[in-house]
């Protein structure tokens, strides 16, 4: 098991190195000069040269890349001249909002997919299965921004059940974790927890629907394949109940592909959902990146690319390790 984990960690480090190199080269290939943007349109060539020297843009590309990696590892992720503060401070201020939203969306999509797929597959009737397949196709095909607008029109404008696009809602009395729902619980404020949950509901469900449809289709296909295995016939012959077979025997054997897909979906959600965050005025990392692109603040964009790559790699390594924990065949191989 130790060798298995070590190999995954080495692979992750190499992948992160490739992602950092790609991000560095792509942004350097953009024809815009960051020094001219910082100095302003009326700056002289001497002033632009001074800014380039300050930023290290006058050095050879290999030296620039080495400095970029060393500074990144030390926690210096660059300086955002459009916001007037370090990039790391900006990301750390907005990251809890994005992570909280992503975790709630993932929990809804993953738990909902498991429950609905198992119940529909083993219900003994074709109609629940057909309805679930139709819903999964709809969830996968509808753009999230369109769902967000429909939810706001229906549940905010018409029914008034949930808050509108006003962000995260009231701030907890003390921000221990940055997750509003958890901080309200730690403070013993159930009313505040419920209000934070209401603000999370629409954006989280909006993000989760597409992933929910994909996971339902994937898990349903694996459940059907596993349900025809000989051991399932033996369990039926022994008189084991339908739901006991479904949740206790078929689901664990059909779960590994869904675990992989779930890891990728979680990494995607943690990487930021720009349009949904913008529509609901959610103060997450997605809005920060959009502002960085519009203002041509390349330090923000570069840091976000590397952070997203790290999240994908970290979640991928975690899923690989969970594979070895869940399935003994992976450990032996």
TrEMBL record:
<keyword id="KW-0472">Membrane</keyword>
<dbReference type="GO" id="GO:0071916">
    <property type="term" value="F:dipeptide transmembrane transporter activity"/>
</dbReference>
<dbReference type="InterPro" id="IPR000515">
    <property type="entry name" value="MetI-like"/>
</dbReference>
<comment type="similarity">
    <text>Belongs to the binding-protein-dependent transport system permease family.</text>
</comment>
<protein>
    <submittedName>
        <fullName>ABC transporter permease</fullName>
    </submittedName>
</protein>
<keyword id="KW-1133">Transmembrane helix</keyword>
<dbReference type="GO" id="GO:0005886">
    <property type="term" value="C:plasma membrane"/>
</dbReference>
<feature type="transmembrane region" description="Helical">
    <location>
        <begin position="134"/>
        <end position="156"/>
    </location>
</feature>
<dbReference type="InterPro" id="IPR045621">
    <property type="entry name" value="BPD_transp_1_N"/>
</dbReference>
<feature type="transmembrane region" description="Helical">
    <location>
        <begin position="200"/>
        <end position="219"/>
    </location>
</feature>
<dbReference type="Pfam" id="PF19300">
    <property type="entry name" value="BPD_transp_1_N"/>
</dbReference>
<keyword id="KW-0813">Transport</keyword>
<keyword id="KW-1003">Cell membrane</keyword>
<dbReference type="InterPro" id="IPR035906">
    <property type="entry name" value="MetI-like_sf"/>
</dbReference>
<keyword id="KW-0812">Transmembrane</keyword>
<dbReference type="Pfam" id="PF00528">
    <property type="entry name" value="BPD_transp_1"/>
</dbReference>
<feature type="transmembrane region" description="Helical">
    <location>
        <begin position="101"/>
        <end position="122"/>
    </location>
</feature>
<feature type="domain" description="ABC transmembrane type-1">
    <location>
        <begin position="95"/>
        <end position="323"/>
    </location>
</feature>
<feature type="transmembrane region" description="Helical">
    <location>
        <begin position="300"/>
        <end position="326"/>
    </location>
</feature>
């Amino acid at each position: 098991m130790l060798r298995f984990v070590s190999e995954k960690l080495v692979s992750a480090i190499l992948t992160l190195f490739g992602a950092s190199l790609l991000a560095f080269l792509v942004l350097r290939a953009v024809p815009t000069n960051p020094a001219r943007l910082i100095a302003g349109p009326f700056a002289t060539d001497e002033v632009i040269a001074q800014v380039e020297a300050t930023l290290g843009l006058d050095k050879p590309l290999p030296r620039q890349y080495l400095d970029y990696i060393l500074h990144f590892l030390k926690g210096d992720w660059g300086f955002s001249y459009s916001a007037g503060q370090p990039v790391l401070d900006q990301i750390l201020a907005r990251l809890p909002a994005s992570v909280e939203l992503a975790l709630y969306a993932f929990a809804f999509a993953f738990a909902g997919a498991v429950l609905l797929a198992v119940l529909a597959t083993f219900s003994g009737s074709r109609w629940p299965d057909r309805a679930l397949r139709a819903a999964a196709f709809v969830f996968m095909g509808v753009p999230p921004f369109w769902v967000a607008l429909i939810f706001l029109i229906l549940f905010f404008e018409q029914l008034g059940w949930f808050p509108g696009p006003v962000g995260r809602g009231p701030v907890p009395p003390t921000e221990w974790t940055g997750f509003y729902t958890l901080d309200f619980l730690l403070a013993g404020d159930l009313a505040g927890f419920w209000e934070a949950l209401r603000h999370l509901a629409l954006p989280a469900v909006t993000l989760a629907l597409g992933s929910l449809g994909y996971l339902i289709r994937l898990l349903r296909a694996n459940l059907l394949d596993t349900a025809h295995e000989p051991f399932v016939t033996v369990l039926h012959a022994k008189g084991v109940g339908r739901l006991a077979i479904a949740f206790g025997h078929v689901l664990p054997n059909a779960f590994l592909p869904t675990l992989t897909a779930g890891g990728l979906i979680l990494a995607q959600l943690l990487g930021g959902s720009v349009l949904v965050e913008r529509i609901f005025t959610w103060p997450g990392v997605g809005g920060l990146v959009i502002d960085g692109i519009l203002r041509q603040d390349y330090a923000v964009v570069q840091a976000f690319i590397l952070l997203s790559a790290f999240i994908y790699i970290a979640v991928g390594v975690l899923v690989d390790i969970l594979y070895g924990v869940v399935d003994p065949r992976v450990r032996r191989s």
